[in-house]
Amino acid sequence: MEITVKLNGRSVSALIEPDLLLIDFLRAQGCLSVKRGCETANCGLCTVLMDDVPVLSCSVLAARAHGHSITTLEGLQTEAADFVGFIADQGAEQCGFCNPGFVMNTIALLRENPDPTDDEIRAYLAGNLCRCSGYEGQLRGIRNYLNSRKG
Amino acid sequence: MEKQYQNVNHAVRKKDAMQLLLGKGVFVDDLAPRDALTVKLLRSPHANAIVESINAEIAKKVPGVVDVFTWEDVPQTRFAIAGQTYPEPSPYDRLILDRHVRYVGDPVAIIAAENEKAALKAMKLIRVKYQVLPAVLDYHTAKDNEILVHDEADWELLLPVGGDNRRNLVSVDEMGHGDVEAVMADCDVVIDRTYHTKACQQAMMETFRTCTQLDRYGRLHVISSTQIVFHVRRILSRALGIPKSRIRVEKPRIGGGFGAKQTAVCEVYPAFVTVKTGRPAKLIFTREECQTAGSPRHEMELRVRLGADRDGHIRALDMTVLSNTGAYGEHGSATVGLTREKTAPLYTGGLEAHRWRSEVVYTNLQPAGAYRGFGATQGIFAVESAVNELAEQLGIDPTVIREKNMVREGMQMPAYYDNMANACALDRCMSHCREMFGWEQRYPVRDMGNGKVRAAGVAMAMQGSCIPDIDMASATVKLSDDGTYNLIHGAADMGTGSDTILSQIAAECMGCSVEDVAVFSADTDVSPYDSGSYASSTTYVTGKAVVKACGELKEKICAVGAKMLSCPVEETEFVGSGVRHTVTGKEVSIADISYHAQCGNTVAVQATASHTSPVSPPPYMVGMAEIELDRETGHVTVLDYMAVVDCGLPINPALARAQAEGGIVQGIGMALYEDVNYNAAGRPIESSLMQYKIPTRLDMGTLRVEFEHSCEPTGPYGAKSVGEIVINTPGPAIAHAIYRATGVWHRELPILPEHIALAKVEE
Amino acid sequence: MITIQNYVRAQSLQEAWELNQNKRSRIIGGMLWLKMGKTAVHTAIDLGDLGLNTIEETEEAFSIGCSVTLRQLELHEGLNTYFGGAIAAAVRDIVGVQFRNLATVGGSIFGRFGFSDVLTVFLAADSYVELYQGGIVALEEFVKMKKDRDVLVRVIVKKRGGRFAYHAMRNARTDFPVLTCAVGCVEGTYRAVIGARPARARVLYDEKNLLAGIITADSAAAFAEYVAKKMPTGSNHRGSAAYRTHLVRVLTERAVREMGGC
Question: Which of chain B's termini has less CB crowding within 10 Å, N or C?
Fold first, then answer.
């Protein structure tokens, strides 16, 4: 079947199998930031924005994305660059494999709630697993970023 | 006053940070050729069985399937997949595919197909007839069981570690000093307890994965998510029966390792496919494979006898350890050794004698391997818990009892090969942590109402900084065109930031900025030899190799500079920005030297140096946990975890802190909910991240990590290690806090709410 | 790995229902559970074009389209006002925001999963499901029905002066619950709903009127004891039957006391 998706602002059409998952479609389209860490919708590594809402691309059929807008980290390089330096300053990116999902969901959080408390940050990002950092450095990085925005 | 440095002991951003954070394609699956065959493994549904017959003819006919391989197709040379220096202490007990399958998940067939769908379809169509055998599922009954996990005639141990496959034994060992029974008999109090730790999973976010292809010379080019490129080359050479010169192993960025990738868990399968088909191939383990056919921590049962005086002087330690290595013996004899080596020396202060006996047994369960802490974690849970039990029994503050007994700088450590504690800030870690944590206020149990109580616990830890006289590393430093440098090494940055840390060391040596050091690792064709990143060795050993290489490079640069300055080399000195003539003060810049070195020059402006260490200086740590415990449900909330670490001089404090925080959270998971269980048939239950719960950011409370510096004379700029030690304190500290809150000691990890709630109910 | 032969965005409920009569067809909700299975699906039926992704609130009831996500439930002010925050409390520990942005109320309720927080909390209220063929059925009845090939269109909650409290026990925060417990008081009648027993949620009414009048610590304890005695529990690797029964008592008592403010 054929689908047309607005991928990172660009209209993309492709012939796909009905059971192709969005994550695999996106990686085939060259969006290598989208990672898979599990098969059970638990890790959050594959987070992308579908019509600006963060979803697990491992659990969405590519067919379902037809007619919708999909944003991956490839499409948010400028918006992300502002923020990720603060994570780098903490060394909290560590292995980096969970980073794209974490960055995407943090962007979604901050669009929804520009001035979150620490508890709101923890709650919103609870579905983004990270095995390296222990999360505390990610929290410090987000906090420093928010403080920098306040001037 | 501590020396101030330009590059080391600074929180420099990781060199790969922005590439990682912006999601660039730098991992194995991002780099695999688009036309790589998908490799899938058909795995045994039985814990112990013989493949009587296997028929893949129908499977091979599935469109897109390129080939299916069975035990009849593979070389019959046994090998070990543990990443250890040759000759390895791990037994040669594996084949690529063995007719005898020894755990639920043992590979039975290798499927190579154009895509995943075809491979999975083929998997369903392979007809296997198994002769199902009774299995050894309880490690207590493994030794001398009539069921043999490895009855093969060609089972082989290269080193005398006491293993005997006819007895299901991988190793037997005994060590100690002094007369334990005599001292124990003279003690006022003896604590005798048995502890149990389960087979935790590393659960790195990137599962095991490898892609392979033939390069332009027809050699096997392996790109793998591994901590051990050189060991992988050696293992593949033996397993595949091809010379090492025909193999190149490279690691790109690695999505976490934690020791899991110190074992060549997946490399042989796609490598075999590429050798057989000539086609690029890739094997990406599913999370289920990672959880059920990976390389988790060794389950251990540890009996600890601790003898002490009434006033809390610890005089004797006696440990008996039974370790479950599962179906294959990777790292079995090595891990168990650390249950002694990284516990007894902590109590050097008063310990008159210690004894340690161990057995490592085979069972028909998932094979264990290396996981951060590597046996020390299990040993420290047991010994630190026993010390806490002793303190509580004697009514002595557990921080005070440790101060009475702990190892201190300048002591000789009989339990640590008589090494001197040349750099030891454990005493300062304790006092610092006690103050930061507010131990005086938090140690007393506080009732919060609603059935909730707050309580605190403490533990100490140590680890090593390499395997002495075995681990080795090399570094090449070369002067580049414009006066900058290339650093090439063979250690594996698995997210730890070692590439950056080693660059900081190079920059410090060469008097340049970290940006002026371009780093590359690790590739067996390019990198000088390094045993790999494990045993907390990279900063300490590879770091020192960098220091040595830089020293040699400076001499070569001076030689070129001397020519330019028309003076004897003895009259020059390297000053970072260039080479100075000590007599005239005239200086030639490093950039000019580099161009000069490229024209009519015979001095190679590069140097390679190797390093190994006769000692493994321990880092030390104190951890304190405050929990809130719900006495009715048994739920434990970790409120605060504070730790002070002595890793010598932290080369990069931000990265050392990230290591510590990450390790602590893994330790919290191990203490409270990371559970590994098998059903009655030996099938793993926690086979996904849905069932095996690693901590989320809602599960770990607030962390605070600080450092107490010491200066290790044998380390680069006084550095020791930090990668492993950090996982060791949460288990005993949290178990201690739970005791304080409930009055019940839990001696098995994880301590689930049910254990707490029902133990209370039964009281 | 699931395989799907055809994907259809149904243009009417009738079309969805007809396609779903094939035993190998599946209506896809959030697809979170469906994806994990190894089913060979003939036709995957997407209800996304049917406008069933809204929560409508009237004076009398909430009408929740089957495609409404758990995240919508969590954030809906009217629903959480009526439930006293119990809906948000029930769903907030389900994996993560991205998961809850996909998981649908229709999928959660139709699946009648044992572990379901969603089923537990809705059973505490006067709730119904609207089935395309079967019409409106009380949720309590629907829970007991065998899975058939009907289409769940909406969940309806009648506003009947309800008060609610929700408690669950998890070994780790975003894990499956070891036990779920919702207590509802609808027009003066109390009920306890216990889920993740580990079997699917079951309702128990306060038939002995233990909570009649003002709730006290004693009456809460008595009701909790009653529920713990009557509610069957079982064992799985997250908890034993004995622990679950212990939790039934603890969580029920806490929920009742929360509602009674004592």
Answer: N
- Top residue of A3, A19, A23, A45 to mutate, by most chain C CBs within 10 Å, is A19
Chain C positions in Cβ-Cβ contact with residue A54 (cut-off 8 Å): 97-98, 101
CA B187 from centroid of its chain's CA atoms: 37
CA–CA distance, C224 with B310 (Å, rounded to integer): 48
The 8 Å CB, 24+ separation contacts for C54-62 are C55/C79, C59/C159, C60/C158, C60/C159, C61/C156, C61/C157, C61/C158, C61/C159, C62/C156, C62/C157, C62/C159
Chain B contact for A106 (CB, 8 A cutoff) = no
Q: CATH assignment of B299-465+616-762?
A: 3.30.365.10
Q: Which residues of A touch C (CB under 8 A)?
A: 1, 17-19, 21, 39-42, 44, 47, 53-56, 58-61, 63-64, 105, 108-109, 123-128
Which residues does C141 contact at the CB level (< 8 Å), separation at least 6? none
Per CATH, domain C53-158 is 3.30.465.10: yes
Residue C121 has pLDDT above 70, yes or no: yes
| Nearest residue to A35 (alpha-carbon basis) of A73, A70, A71 | A73
Domain residue spans of chain C: 3-45, 53-158, 163-260
Q: Do β-strands C3-9 and C40-46 pair in parallel, antiparallel, or remain unpaired? A: parallel
Name the token pair of B537: 């060795």
The minimum CA-CA distance between C47 and chain A, rounded to whole Å, is 10
For all residues of chain C together, what is the average pLDDT? 96
Question: Tokens at residue B59, please?
Answer: 């499977």
Terminal alpha carbon distance of chain A: 51
Residues A101 and A142 in one domain: yes
- Which residue in C174, C239, C246 is closest to B696 by CB distance? C174
Is B761 at the interface with chain C, CB within 8 A?
yes
Q: Which residues contact B582 (CB under 8 A, 6 or more apart)?
A: B571, B572, B573
The model's pTM is: 0.98
Q: Which CATH class is domain B17-23+467-612?
A: alpha beta
String of b and e for A132-144 (b: at least 16 CB within 10 Å)?
A: bbbbbbbbbbbeb
pLDDT at residue A151, as a whole number: 74
The answer to whether A61 contacts C7, with C-beta atoms less than 8 Å apart, is yes
CA distance B118 to chain C (A): 12
B299-465+616-762 and B17-23+467-612 share a CATH fold = yes
Q: Provide the pLDDT for residue C262.
A: 82
CA nearest to C91 within chain A: A123
Closest CA to B48 of B296, B359, B326: B326
DSSP A63: G
Q: What angle (nearest 5°) sits at the alpha carbon of residue B400, between those of residues B455 and B374? A: 75
| Kind and range of the H or E run holding C150 | none
For residue C33, the chain B residue with the least C-alpha distance is: B690
pLDDT tens profile C87-116 = 999 999 999 999 999 999 999 999 999 999
The architecture CATH gives domain C163-260? 2-Layer Sandwich (3.30)
**Residues 6+ positions from B163 with CB-CB distance below 8 Å:** B91, B157, B169, B170, B171, B172, B329, B333, B360
The 3-state DSSP class for residue C63 equals strand
Residue pLDDT, tens place only, B178-206: 999 999 999 999 999 999 999 999 999 99
ipTM of this predicted complex? 0.98
Mean pLDDT of B437-456: 96
pLDDT for the residue B1: 66
Look at residue B762 and tell me whether its pLDDT is greater than 70: no
